[in-house]
Design goal:
Strand content: 15-25%
Structural class: alpha+beta
Largest sheet: 6 strands, mixed
Number of helices: 12
CATH topology of the largest domain: Beta-lactamase
Length: about 450
């Protein structure tokens, strides 16, 4: 009874602390500049936390951001051979003609290595090379597009659909900022992809029809010959159509901090390239105003969990499985960070091993969950064989089968009682003697 009482008090305390404790938070706000992009996101590649977001789930046209998927499939294909040759075809030039896409000017029959082909698609964004890759690796443009959509499903890009490998405008070629982040994070795990998209200049080897030629990146953040150069920027992909506006996926690293910025549908009016200036502004804002903070360590207990079947203790302390580090504003007040615990059950049965996962804790800042950490047992708890035996006995006598037995016994007892009562009544009736007055019996004898 005492254990149950303390368990109740502990549970009540947890509920009270989560619901009624005051929370003071403030949201991340971009200050000092405006973002004109229709949709965008700045996310930490170190922690996965989003520092800036706008319309990240709105479906948009990706333009040449599409080629991130195109190159991903190229590099994952069984046919990919870095030194293997691929020749430009008349079919490719016919398909790209009149689309307005940038082209490589490769001649029909001209052969380049597959490594060079990757650079022409990802770094310089040539549409004819994207179609050439689709036909070579997919057998046809249609089949390659089906492969693209299949990969989107595999990666969980629920709001993405592809209609071509180039990014040419099509009502059925759409995605979201969130999906672009998921895809790009996946693509950057491939070392070749990462190297290509971070390259500023590349020399295509001499071919059977041309000498060496140098091609350049379309990402002006990486190009130190332009006014948009940002020294900490790397990759990833640009995109543009009238319908999609100016688009840019990029990354930047400085002093141990790594971010990805995605800006979609930036204005196309005037000479200013907003996708570059605003990406750089967001990076500066993050580098100057945010830093790593250890929100929670793994040396102090977070809460306790009731323990059953042990005579040693009634509770086991729970700790963070590992320290939780977050990217937070430099002026973030630790008192505004809330830890919301969620235990896997009301109590745990002994034995308990140190490190057993017994729940989770959400780390909340600025009214947003910035992370989830497992809660683990801080020490071992031995079971009591006596308490285990008593539980088995209790469970046995409280089981459904025993309840049926109890019911049958009760019915048998009731029947037995009824039978006893019935027999007693019969006996009483047999013992009754008819009463005849004394005088009347004497007179009867005189008459005879």
């Amino acid at each position: 009874m005492l254990k149950r009482f303390f368990s109740f008090l502990f549970s009540a305390f947890l509920i009270f602390s989560v619901i009624f404790c005051p929370v003071t938070v403030k949201a991340y706000e971009v200050t000092g500049f405006d973002i004109t992009a229709k949709a965008g996101m700045l996310v930490s590649l170190d922690t996965g936390e989003i520092l800036y977001s706008n319309n990240i789930d709105q479906k948009l046209y990706p333009a040449s951001i599409t080629k991130i998927m195109t190159v991903t499939l190229m590099l994952e294909s069984d046919k990919y051979d870095p030194d293997g040759k691929v020749a430009m075809t008349e079919e490719v030039q016919r398909l790209i003609s009149g689309t307005g896409s940038a082209v490589s000017n490769l001649q029909i029959g001209e052969e380049i290595t597959q490594t060079d082909l990757v650079y022409t698609v990802l770094m310089s964004s040539f549409g004819d090379c994207a179609i050439l890759a689709a036909i070579y690796y997919g057998g046809s443009v249609e089949n390659f597009v089906a492969m693209m959509n299949g990969k989107a499903v595999e990666l969980g890009l629920d709001s993405t659909h592809y209609a071509n490998p180039v990014g040419l405008h099509d009502e059925n070629n759409y995605t979201t900022v969130r999906d672009i982040y998921t895809l790009t994070e996946y693509a950057l795990k491939n070392d070749t992809f990462k190297e290509v998209c971070e390259t500023t200049r590349y020399t295509i080897k001499a071919t059977n029809m041309s000498g060496e030629r140098v091609i350049s990146t379309t990402n002006l953040l990486q190009d130190n010959t332009t006014n948009y150069y940002y020294q900490y920027a790397k990759g990833v992909k640009t995109g543009y159509t009238d319908e999609a506006g100016r688009c840019l996926v990029s990354t930047a690293s400085y002093n141990g901090y790594n971010y990805m910025c995605i800006l979609m549908n930036c204005p196309t009016t005037g000479d200013k390239r907003y996708e570059f200036t605003e990406s750089a502004d967001l990076y500066r804002w993050a580098f100057n105003n945010f830093s790593f903070k250890e929100v929670a360590n793994s040396t102090e207990p977070v809460c306790e969990m009731p323990v059953e079947l042990s005579l040693d203790t009634d509770f086991v302390p729970l700790y963070f499985e590992e320290p939780f580090v977050s990217v937070l504003p430099n002026d973030a007040d630790d008192s505004t960070i809330v830890v919301k615990t969620s235990l896997s059950s009301e109590s745990v049965d002994a034995p308990v091993k140190k490190g057993d996962v017994l729940g989770t804790a959400e780390i909340i800042y600025a009214e947003q969950v910035i992370g989830t950490v497992n809660l683990v047992a801080g020490n071992n708890v031995k079971e009591s064989r006596l308490l285990i035996a008593l539980r088995y006995v209790k469970e046995f006598f409280g089981s459904v089968y025993m309840k049926i037995v109890y019911a049958l016994i009760a019915i048998a007892i009731l029947i037995f009682i009824l039978m006893i009562i019935k027999l007693n009544i019969a006996r009483i009736r047999k013992r009754k003697v008819k009463y005849i007055p004394y005088g009347k019996r004497k007179g009867d004898r005189n008459e005879h």
